[in-house]
Specification:
Length: 449
């Protein structure tokens, strides 16, 4: 579908602002101020990131790798801070040790489940052959390397990685959007789902319906460690500003135990919304590089399409209005079903094929179900607030955020601005003033920080 056809679809599906405002009796809207979360962080300075990455790789044992052997470095599709620099640091360390590194995309079905699509995703994250200093081998071909002992589930892996003399996944450790467990997103998950490409990801998600991720990932990880020359991984932890705060080499023996400890740190540093009960949250965008589910389920407190997993206990958000997709998500609107209302811009940017492939692979087709579509921001806010009961503009609790990753500064309604004045972890940056619209669209820019 070309851009013109997508715009036609957006126009056909969206409801005009006038219709919504009339149906809702043109209610008054709350004002917005700006609040800021006070976070104490200690990130690695950008000038030292490559050095930390190199040291992490150097800490791993290459004793069983032949001189001049090939080392496959797994890199994913998430928006990890300093990713090209980290990968380049690992490449330099491996090269200096006398081995031949190459990068392979370890991202499951992302990139439209094609080798070229996955190479493109790496390139757009800044991971190119020129920036990292080594070859990128991108293919969707996998080979079966074994079966799980109890359920006889096929264990597959990228054929380029399997053919190498050593494998090192490079990934951020963080809370997962679909499940809770001792090991969530990180090195082990990259081995099981990322390195398994589309087939491995699909196998994992299908089996997760009856066999939870928290049990499956450790078991398949153990099988991969037995069958493949995995010399360790490079684990990354980021702070609340999504800045690199830790880069560590994790030996194979630590893929479960050390990952569990790093996950606890990641939970402590994860950015969250500063209020547990909210009437409406407006997100300016969602995307795969923001979260695997577009909107991080740990931030929004919703997990409506996960596989046999309960939703996080907090926060409790009555309505979510999502305004757009990120450029780097390439139309993949996976997770759009988390929203209650979406802007027509999402339909105009949506790649239905890519989104559906992702949903089918993850066995979460409800994740791409479309909420009601509105033509303008004003229509979305009016529709959301008009469906939560009687609204008082002085007491209604509304936030506007850039996305679920960037939560340092937030637009906030008067009630939340006043609440922020009494909290040490929050600061009022700007007092409330009327929301400005231009042809129904929000005028105030997105707050990235």
């Amino acid at each position: 579908m070309n851009a013109s056809d997508q715009q036609i679809a957006a126009d056909a599906l969206s409801v005009p602002e006038e219709t919504i405002v009339d149906a809702c009796d043109d209610p008054p809207l709350p004002e917005f101020g700006i609040i800021e979360q006070n976070w104490e962080t200690d990130p690695i300075t950008p000038a030292h990131v490559a050095t930390h990455a190199a040291r992490a790789a150097e800490s791993l044992s290459f004793a069983d790798v032949p001189d001049g052997g090939e080392v496959a470095l797994g890199v994913g599709s998430r928006g990890i801070a300093n990713l090209p620099t980290i990968v380049a640091g690992v490449v330099d360390a491996v090269s200096d040790a006398g081995y031949e590194p190459f990068v392979f995309p370890a991202m499951g079905s992302h990139g439209g489940a094609t080798g070229e699509g996955q190479r493109t995703m790496l390139n757009e994250l800044g991971v190119t052959e020129s920036t990292i200093g080594c070859e990128i081998r991108s293919s969707m071909d996998v080979v079966e390397v074994g079966r799980t002992p109890d359920r006889n589930v096929p264990v597959v892996a990228d054929d380029n990685a399997v053919a190498a003399d050593a494998i090192i996944p490079i990934n951020r450790v963080k809370p997962h959007t679909d499940f809770d467990g001792p090991v969530e997103s990180g090195l082990s998950k990259m081995l099981v789902i990322g390195m398994g490409k589309q087939r491995g990801a699909q196998i994992a998600h299908k089996w997760a319906v009856d066999w939870s991720f928290r049990q499956m990932i450790p078991e398949i990880t153990g099988r991969l460690l037995e069958e493949l020359p995995i010399v360790g991984g490079v684990a990354i932890v980021e702070d609340q500003h999504d800045e690199t705060t830790l880069i560590e080499g994790v030996p194979p023996s630590g893929f479960l135990d050390r990952e569990e400890e790093l996950l606890e740190t990641a939970y402590e540093l994860m950015p969250t919304l500063p209020f547990e009960e909210l009437d409406l949250v407006v997100f300016d965008r969602q995307g795969k590089e923001i979260s695997g589910q577009g909107l991080d389920t740990n931030v929004i407190g919703r997990r409506p399409f996960s596989i046999n997993e309960p939703a996080p206990e907090t926060p409790d958000i009555k309505r979510i209005f999502t305004r757009g997709l990120t450029e780097k998500t390439h139309g993949n609107a996976m997770g759009i079903g988390s929203a209650d209302i979406i802007h027509a811009d999402i339909i105009a940017e949506l790649d239905a094929e890519t989104s559906l492939i992702n949903a089918l692979t993850a066995s979460t087709i409800r994740g791409v179900k479309l909420p009601p579509v509105v033509e303008t921001d004003r229509a979305g806010i009016v529709a959301a607030l008009s469906t939560i009961g009687v609204v008082d503009t002085d007491t209604v609790r509304v936030l506007r955020a850039a996305d679920t990753m960037h939560l340092h500064q937030l637009y906030a309604s008067p009630a939340l601005v006043e609440a922020a004045r009494d909290r040490d972890d929050l600061r009022v940056v700007e007092d409330p003033s009327p929301i400005e619209f231009d042809n129904g669209q929000l005028v105030a820019p997105s707050l990235r920080e």
